[in-house]
From TrEMBL:
Start and end residues of each stretch annotated as Disordered: 253-284
Gene Ontology MF term list: cyclic-guanylate-specific phosphodiesterase activity
Biased composition, class Basic and acidic residues, residue ranges: 273-284
Alphabetical list of Gene3D superfamilies matching this protein: EAL domain (3.20.20.450)
SMART domains per UniProt: EAL
PROSITE patterns assigned to the protein according to its UniProt record, in alphabetical order: EAL
Boundaries of every EAL domain copy: 15-261
Source organism of this protein record: Magnetospirillum fulvum
Name of the protein this chain belongs to: EAL domain, c-di-GMP-specific phosphodiesterase class I (Or its enzymatically inactive variant)
SUPFAM superfamilies: EAL domain-like (SSF141868)
Amino acid sequence: MTRAGPRPRFAASPEGLADAVIADILSQPSVGAEYQPLVDVVTGQIAGYEALSRFRTRMGEPVPPDRVFKALHQSLPALYDIEFRAKRDQIAHAPTGVPLFVNLDPDAFVAGGGDSPDNPLMALLSLRNDIGVEIIENSSVADSRLSLAMLRHLRVLGVRVALDDIGGGESLLSFAVLAGIDDMKIARDWLDRRDDPVAQRLLSALAGFGRDTGKRLIFEGIETEADLAWARSQGADLVQGFLYRPQFITWQPEPAPAQPPHRRGTGPIVRSRRSELAWTHERR
């Protein structure tokens, strides 16, 4: 379901994501998905999947999800449209038999109607009885207020809620949100701080808070057996990351019909200088 409005215009980002690339993505009816398993550290069994958006142009070129969503924040109706398509497709094509987590942007929640009973994004969550929502970590006080409003509404609906990317480089931790969630997702940034005694004490405090309040600890970005052993030592309940790549599941819609070339310059699609491993960890 989409909400009509004037066609938004987007300026090219510093990373090289052009107006025409966003227009290309907005013109497609569906959004690809990748399902990454959440693995129990004790049993090694899959305890659930996280659904992530995977964008491609009509020519099949992958586009980083973080850049897409950053650009879409210039137009909240466009953000809502993509968020709705992405969640609809993620739910429709997800594995069954284990819980599914989807990410939900607080700005898209507001654009879809907020806590209104007819918010289509909330209606999607009723399509399965085992869907959880990951609230995307915020970078401003205003965003944290939106996250808290969304959390309260999800609580009324009885939806399990996780806070994503705790301790990530650009995140802001809201105590009110942290106190109200069910699951704490520990950002992969902590792996780079494992030898920092100050960071270690902070993580231990967060983990202790989680255990004392009955929250599950989910460690992200696990790539090696050494990472897994470290996560276990920190009290992880579940882990996810590239170590489990053979168990990733992907779904891509059928290619949309090609469109005539745009007359204006479209600009390049430029990936930042990161490893292929880092590329696959783009969130959303």
